[in-house]
Amino acid sequence: MAKTVKKLLGPKVLIPAILTIGVIAALLAFGNVGKVIALMAGFNRLYLIWFFLAMIAYTVVRGVQWHYLLRAPNVRAPLRAQVFAFLMGEMTKSLPIGNYFQNYILERSRGTDFGRTSAASTIVIITEVGVSLLGCVLIGVGGWAWVRPVILLGVGGFMLVCFIFSKVHDPTNPPRWITSRKTFRTVLDEFNQFRDGAHDLAHPRILLIESALSAIYLVIAGTGLWLVARGLGISGISYVGALAVYFFSLAVGLILPIPIDFGVVEISGTGALLAIGVSKTGAVGIMLINRFLSLASALVIALLGMVIFRDELRKALEERPKGNKRGRRPSQGQPERDAANEALGEELGGEHEQSPSQMPAGAT
Questions:
Q1: pLDDT of residue 348
Q2: Cα(21)–Cα(19) distance, integer angstroms
Q3: How far, rounded to the nearest angstrom, does the alpha carbon of residue 229 sit from its chain's CA centroid?
Q4: pLDDT digits (tens, 9 = 90+) for 109-132
């Protein structure tokens, strides 16, 4: 119990929690606390049903995408295990590295390789950024004329950096300071598994289907934002405008190098809503209600998943033997890397891993 309390009060939990509370307080103050609360209290309860139905559809499409991406790298895990892991990940995706919680659960319950399955989660994030930016370019964000050129220049610069990196980076020849340490070699091996998993997914047909699924569920999520606006009685936002706001806020939340998107999405979304003519009170109310209902929907669906897939929950909580990973296969060039690492380890063994017989007399 004491350890649990200590973790909850640790900086990794406490700092994001304080920042989140601070951002929410700032938004409420910006939109006038009294008016925002009054607006939220008058939310039309009928739209709760429509919103929850939209979130079910959103979750189903995302789940289909997750299952489809796991098939390409030949991840051998039962469908029920994949569904359970996915639902747990939906509950935590707004937390630091929460997008990879589903990979951790799948490794815990079925012993699948984390590095290989995390390639699917990473491609989902990249695709969401791409679809959101494309949506902003096609639709625009109110009177913000700078959005389109900034996106086009940013995407061009990113692609140039990726091209240069691919030319100068040699994955078959890692630095000596990495291969000389066991811990770093383990991390390198996981990265190689991730790279090979990404290679398995880097086919036009797979990426086209995955991108289409992303576009579908992101439009559904944007529909949820529009339903929130309707439930609050705000008629000054069109359906297309709601999609633009959602795309913009999601892109900002995913691109900014901040481990938690609480606050980032709300602030950027509030700004976008102001750009399309929504009042300060309405903008803050829409973003806060949308966040609350999205989290509540994900939590309810995840709890139902825990009840339905109790056996998978039990497997995830069980202790697994170390190294018990299924579906793991040697990455490209792995035999050559293993031989090189072994030779280097023998060469540096006297420096880092001396046996007791090699130690000076009297050493402890």
A1: 45
A2: 5
A3: 26
A4: 888 888 888 888 999 999 999 999
88 and 174 in contact (C-beta within 8 Å)? no
Tokens standing for residue 74: 């030949």
For 66, other C-beta atoms within 10 Å of its C-beta total: 24
Q: How far apart are CA 122 and CA 116, in angstroms?
A: 11
Does residue 108 contact residue 323 with C-beta atoms inside 8 Å? no
* Distance between start and end Cα atoms, the chain: 36
Instruction: List pLDDT tens digits, range 59-101.
Output: 999 999 999 998 877 778 889 999 999 999 998 887 777 888 9
Tokens of 199: 């290679």
Residue with tokens 């359970």: 84
Side chain identity at residue 49, one-letter code: I
pTM: 0.80
Q: How far apart are CA 75 and CA 200, in angstroms?
A: 11
- Are 20 and 288 in contact by the 8 Å Cβ rule? The answer is no
Dist. CA 102–CA 94, nearest whole Å: 13
Question: What would the two tokens of residue 143 be?
Answer: 């009177």
In 72-145, alpha helices (H): 79-92, 101-110, 114-139
Domain ranges of the chain: 45-171+194-319
